[in-house]
Write a structure and sequence with these properties.
It is built from 6 helices and 3 strands, in the order H-E-E-H-H-H-H-E-H. It has 167 residues and is mainly alpha-helical. Strands 2-1-3 form a 3-stranded antiparallel β-sheet.
Length: 167
């Protein structure tokens, strides 16, 4: 991130992605001052705990679901910063860079064609979301609030982003 504004919009994008795909129940809190990989704290349900009583199929499905959510959050981080904060577009090179990173992360769970399909679906959906004028205003308000408060609980995040459900 280049500064706190950039970081706020990146975090905001990730939280919006969680809300859009109904993963807000996995969110515990958001902290602007945490290290980059710890800005979003998840509930314990998000983390995989090995258990021999859990079927391998369930375990695999959970890992793929978490990967998909992380993919959407990563894409949303980039799109929110570019479209809303910088009022710019995504270059083909940046899109490819994002995809390459996500492909590398996902190769343990999925085949390359499956990753590509998930990426394209998520990217297109998130692109439409962050280009929407109503979403842009909600994002700006949330990012400003996060910048001022620095830390938000799950309840505060849900409160500030409840307007998303009306769009």
């Amino acid at each position: 991130y280049i500064n706190d504004d950039d970081k706020c919009y990146g975090i905001t994008g990730m939280v919006v992605a969680m809300m859009v795909w109904d993963n807000e129940d996995l969110l515990s809190s958001v902290n602007l001052d945490a290290t980059d990989n710890e800005n979003i704290e998840f509930h314990h349900d998000f983390y995989f705990c090995g258990n021999p009583r859990i079927s391998p199929r369930y375990t695999w499905n959970k890992m793929v679901k978490n990967y998909k959510m992380m993919m959407e959050m990563f894409i949303a981080n980039v799109l929110c910063r570019q479209y809303v904060l910088h009022q710019s577009t995504i270059t083909p090179q940046l899109k490819q860079l994002v995809y390459n990173h996500l492909e590398e992360e996902g190769c343990d769970y999925l085949e390359k064609d499956e990753i590509k399909e998930l990426f394209e679906q998520s990217y297109e959906s998130l692109q439409r979301i962050f280009m929407h004028s109503g979403v842009k205003q909600i994002v700006k308000d949330f990012a400003l609030n996060l910048l001022q408060q620095r830390t938000l609980t799950q309840a505060e995040v849900l409160h500030h982003l409840q307007a998303l459900s009306m769009l």
